[in-house]
Amino acid sequence: MSLWSYISGNSSSQSGSSYINSTVSAALAKVQNTGSAPDASATAGSDTGVSISANAQAAAAEADDNKKDFADLAREIRSSLDTLYAAEKTAGKPQAANFANLSGRALSAVVLNQGDQFTPAERHQAKAALDQQTRAAFISATQGGMSMSSLSSYSRSLVAQYDAMSSEERQARGWTQSFRDNAAKVVSEGSLSLFDQIDS
């Protein structure tokens, strides 16, 4: 699926984008290398006979985007958005994009707008999508109930995410070293300082 298919919410395959080739190839390679069978959500047929789950696509996109130069990624997103908007205009549809499926790094490229390529509306949508990722992870971690154990587990994942992300993504998310240190305290000391910080 091309990048503009991700941001349009269109699940049909599109050609001519390096994003589709790298994302799908990475996901397929991962499945082939591990010898794992696709999960139930990945077995729906497609014109190629292969379908990849949304989670596998997201993981492959995240890994692929993390390898890209930040400025190159921003240009790729701008090009994909322009392609999407042109296609929607031709089809007589509203020119809108769905940012929800983009990787954290891709969203960060839009939010930070270092090349001054994105509109205020696009930046707002990208920031909202980043914030939604954080909310969804918290809800998932605490769905069994709010306990010190679930908060500790969530905080452990925050530390791992922080350590793995680029400085640009940390900046776009507003995650500072202090934020990371407070998350680590929740894990090591059972301190709720991280959540005090979030509420303030």
Task: Please give a structural write-up.
The chain is mostly helical and 200 residues long. It contains ten helices and no strands. The protein has helices spanning 3-8, 18-34, 54-66, 70-90, 104-112, 120-141, 148-164, 167-173, 177-189, 193-199. The termini are far apart.
Task: Describe this structure in a few short sentences.
By secondary structure, this protein is mainly alpha-helical.
Topology readout:
Layout: H1 3-8, H2 18-34, H3 54-66, H4 70-90, H5 104-112, H6 120-141, H7 148-164, H8 167-173, H9 177-189, H10 193-199
Labels describing this entry:
single chain; 2 domains; elongated; disordered N terminus
The number of distinct helices, counting runs of at least 4 residues, comes to 10
Largest sheet: none
Q: What's the end-to-end separation, in Å?
A: 40 Å
Number of domains: 2
Percent of residues in beta strands?
Answer: under 5%
Structural class: mainly alpha
**Mean of residue pLDDT values:** 75
Helix content: 55-70%
Radius of gyration: 18 Å
E-strand count: 0
- The coarse overall form would be elongated
Q: Spans of 5+ residues with little confidence (pLDDT < 50)?
A: 1-6, 10-46
Helix/strand order = HHHHHHHHHH
